[in-house]
Amino acid sequence: MNDAVVRISRRSLLWAVGGLAAALLLLALVVTGVVARAADANTVASASVMKTQQDAAERDIERAYEQAVTQVHKVRALNLAITAAQADAITLKALNDLKALRHSGLVSLGQVLGLAAADGEATATAAEKRFDQAPLSAQPAPSPVLLAPRLYAIAARMSELATQLSDQATAAVTAPAATPAPTAAPSPSRTPAPPASPSGRP
Amino acid sequence: MFLYHRHHVVSRAIAPLFVALIVSCGSPGTSGTTGTAEDALSRGLQAHTAGKLDEATNAYFETLAKDPKNKFAFYNLGVIAQGQSRPVAAESFYRLAIEQDAKMTSALFNLAILRGVAGANQESADLYRRVIAVEPNNAAAHFNLGLVLRLLGQTAEAQQELATAQRLDAKLVAPSPSASPARQASPSPTR
């Protein structure tokens, strides 16, 4: 009896196993996305893209600021129960807080964009001056820009805090007038106590 | 469950009131910033119903500039703020509306919701009672009052209010009381 035997040399077998292992490794790399990530080019935003992003983020911060300021002014113009001096004090504080908040937002923007502290401060101050001279409400709306996530986070937080500040001012300004405070807690007086019997009335 | 029911009732209650305001204000006035307070209010309502909230807000403030005691403008500013999840501002505007008209049930009702959400359940209950005093058949107010009273531990009165709500509006079914773990663990000996 002649059994058919396929003879494979040890060398061929090693080649085959090696090839199979290489194919499995390649498959694993493709499936896990390593190849795709390696093939992706690392892109760095150009100066013009960065400028567009910065401008758009600054506008978002300014928009939130202007909306809050407008609300504070409108509420101040209402017929209020509190005195004008009280209302002015609350309004002034709210406006100062909003200015500080805007400045802080613009400085944060500079930090995210990689500016040095002094440069960030100068950029923020310049932006404030620019917006104070030409408010966004007086300008045509520019085409919308999709902000980078870290810039968006700053703009969104600014909007949230500005709304909170203006709403707090609204609540304070529209609060009912304080009733006259009761006189100081009674202290033992040296004056004679009134008579126990009811005083006669005319 | 509790919040769901509350919101359910809120939305049901606000919608008809809003329509009522539109009707009460008559036909829309001229556009622009001129005209009477009523014109500005009508413009505000139009913008409000169209979802143009900034425009509506401007128009309501304009209304108040012309008629500083306009309760509808205050109320609608409150509705806008409440819709924008700004409870502090919403409360202020509702309180101003109520200052002008202590029996303005829509403002009382919405303020009651806000106070309840803020955890001021006793104040919330008082506000619902004020709504009911003006509108004894306001099913939503009875319903929400029942829920708030439950939270305050006034179970018997809560049941009464919820039953009244269901009698007035069969769709208002009270959610099952949230049983505390202790009650779940040991069944009550009474039937």
Concise overview:
With 202 residues, chain A is mainly α. Chain A has helices spanning 10-31, 34-39, 47-76, 84-112, 117-133, 149-174.
How would you portray this structure in words?
The complex is a heterodimer of chains A (202) and B (191). Chain A has 202 residues and is mainly alpha-helical. In chain A, 64% of the residues lie in helices and 0% in strands. Chain A is built from 6 helices and no strands. Chain A is elongated. In chain A, 21% of the residues are buried. Chain B is an all-alpha fold and 191 residues long. Chain B is 71% helix and 0% strand. Chain B is built from 10 helices and no strands. In chain B, α1 runs antiparallel to α6 (105-117) and α8 runs antiparallel to α9. Mean pLDDT of chain B is 81; it is low at 1-32 and 179-191. The chains are: A mainly alpha (202), B mainly alpha (191). The A-B interface holds A 74, 77-79, 81, 163-164, 166-168, 170-171, 174-176 and B 61, 64-65, 68-69, 81, 86, 88-89, 91-93, 95-96, 99.
- Name the helicity range of chain B: over 70%
The largest pleated sheet of chain A is described as: none
The helicity of chain A comes to 55-70%
Mean pLDDT of chain B: 81
- The arrangement of helices and strands of chain B along the chain is HHHHHHHHHH
Q: In terms of structural class, how would the helical and strand content of chain A be classed? A: mainly alpha
Q: Tally the helices of chain B.
A: 10
Q: What is the end-to-end distance of chain B?
A: 26 Å
SSE run of chain A: HHHHHH
Largest sheet geometry of chain B? none
* Structure class of chain B: mainly alpha
- Distance from N terminus to C terminus of chain A (CA atoms, Å) equals 148 Å
Strand content of chain A: under 5%
Number of helices of chain A: 6
Q: Which ranges of chain B are low-confidence, i.e. pLDDT below 50, for 5 or more consecutive residues?
A: 1-32, 179-191
Sheet-strand content of chain B, in percent, reads under 5%
User: Main interface pair?
Assistant: A-B, 15 and 15 residues
